[in-house]
Structures are given as structure tokens and as C-alpha cells.
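Good morning N.,

You mentioned wanting to compare the apo and holo forms, so I went ahead and generated the holo version with zinc ion. This is what I fed in:
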Amino acid sequence: MEAVLIEPDCVAALVSSVLEVYNKETSGYLMSRPNMTVKRIDRKDVKLVSLSYAYPFQTDKRTPTYVFHKNRTASIRVVDSLYAMGVDLIGGFHSHIYPHDTALISDNDVDYTLREMLIANNNGIKMDKWLELILAVKKNEYKTKRKIGYEIKGFERGVKINVNTGEDNGFDIKIVGYWIIPKDEWAIKRQAHVYTKYNGKIC
Ligand SMILES: [Zn+2]
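and this is what came out, ligand included:
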């Protein structure tokens, strides 16, 4: 399956939307301009879907352990507006919050993405697979003062972001991705290799 490159502006949108109410889950859509690219990573040519935008849902019901569309017609309006404006819907994202900050996709998550695909397919956006990004979030309190800023490192399953939002607190966020392909009333899950750019380099 294709690897995924999250553009830096999209990373900033994802991070700020999951930290807005960091102790509750957030969800939204991931979009791209139609732009499959090939980049050289670790001396290999890698085909990448590049993610340009993230749209956080405003009308979702959020709790510490799950998030869902409280307003079904509002979520259809989001799909309708993306379709009308010719944006490519690639999938969605949601957060998993400490102490439930696993970077694994649950069966409930898979079920949710299948229903999202159904909404898209019933409203003009034809999709045969869905990318779901999971952002696992943990808050940190520091005893010694740190510089405000952020750092990103790649790891075998995705990217790890450490963002210091204050001198004595910050967040660790892991981003991992899964491709969900509907099959026989259920789905096949494939881990997506997730990359982003940091300091001008792909990581
Ligand atoms: Zn989940």
C-alpha cells in the first residue's frame, strides 16, 4: 500500500486540533490535492500520498475514550462541500488519549471508517479505501524549564512529535496510519508508512 507524507501545515492542523481539547478524543477528515508523488527515502524510491489538509469536525460528540458524529446531516454537509470544491478525501484522523493512548486501530475504529466511506460513497465521493491516522496523545509536565518548540522523529510505525507548548509542559504525540479496504462485510487493515518533513528533511 502507498506510504503517506503529511505536509508540515497539515501536521500543525492535526496537532492543534487534537490539543484543543486534549483530554477528549477529536476526529476529522484528511484531504489532498490529487498528487501522488515519488520521493527518495533511505535510498529507495517511495510512492507517497501527500496529505495537504486536515479538517476537524466541529459538531462531534467527544469523550475521553471515543468520538462520533453527533450530527449526521452536518457530516454529510462536510462531504458535500468537499465534493463541490473538488477536494480529494483520503480518509480521516482521530486521537487516542492517555491512558488509552494506544497507536493500534480498534475494531470499533474500523467499523467507524467503513461507515464514513459509506457516507462518502452515498454522497458523490467514490472511495475504495480509507486512510485512518491515529494520534496517540500524552501530556507531560516538566520539572526543569524547557524551550517552547517542537521536534519530530520518525520511528518504524510512523512519526513521533514532541511539542512543548509551555516552559513546563508539553505533549508527546505518535502518528500512525492504517489503510482500510472493505472486504466481505468487513475490512482488510494495512499499516501505512507515515512520513512528514522536519527541518527540511523527510522523517
Ligand atoms: Zn480509536
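The first helix runs from residue 8 to 20.

Happy to go through it together on a call whenever suits you.

Best,
F.
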